[in-house]
Amino acid sequence: MLAVSYFYSMTKKERFAFVLHYFEEHAPNAETELIYDNPYQLLVAVILSAQCTDKRVNMTTPAIFEKYPDVYALSKATFDELFPYIRSISYPNNKTKHLIGMANMVVENFNGEIPATVAELITLPGVGRKTANVITSVVHQQPNMAVDTHVFRVSARIGLTTNAKTPLQTEQQLLQYIPKEKVHIAHHWLILHGRYICVARTPKCGECGLRKVCKYYQQVISKQQ
Question: Would you kindly state one Gene Ontology biological process term found in this protein's UniProt entry (predicted)?
Answer without folding.
Answer: base-excision repair, AP site formation
